[in-house]
Amino acid sequence: MKITTWNVNGIRARESQVSDWLRLEKPDVLCLQELKASPHQIPVSIAEPEGYWAHWHGLGGYSGVALLISKTLCPVQPVFSSPSFDVECRILVATLGDVEVASIYVPNGGKDFPAKLRFLEAMQVYVAERHAAGMRLILCGDFNVARTERDVHEKLRDPNLAGQTAGERALLEAIFAHGLTDLGRHFAAEDDALFTWWAPWRQYRERNIGWRLDFVTSSPALTSKAMKCTSLREFGTSDHGPVTAVFEGPLFDPTQVKQGGPREIKPPAGPQLTLF
What we know:
Order of helices and strands: EHEHEEEEEHEHEHHEHEE
Number of domains: 1
CATH class: Alpha Beta
């Protein structure tokens, strides 16, 4: 079972590249972030790709997430949902029996840092509650926090920058402490160049001067089935690279998947803050 997460930095700009990824890599699950589009703005060519259940969760602006689930993996359309702390179309969950897969786009924090901390705090509660309910989790996406110093190139390290502060890192560790494994680091414990985001200047991407912000994480029972987790810097023109985890065998019983409808999720109520 292959799961890819990718911050596309604008789905309309990356339309052909998403199609190429589906055709070439054939992931069982594709988690996308930073759509910068509402559902009716998704390009027709990828809105309902052949062989996939697709749910697009966005309001335009800088946020928006999506999940594409292979129909071979899951013959019925699963239930897609969004937890109560989702205020900007930043988290989308697919329920696959006793497994929940989420595409997550944590706020950057540049315009409203306290809101970012609240989002991370809510994620911690969410993980604890879902594990207590007996669910197994795969949380994927752009967490907008470099976990440790080694997750930022030495030229770019600054403990006062959003994404590198001690408070953010403590909150991220609190999330992992509820039983989640960071698969990227799990399979590359000593890799000091394991970056997934590069500023779009000074050839930072070509020189691999970046940050590791994109994660695939899993609950213990699923981590035991993980085979590898890799980042692909060379693919696409987004400022993020795709991250893919491969697991041994299917992770859930498709006969236990509850069938969902086409529109379970309503746009979040209240003002949207555009917390890119």
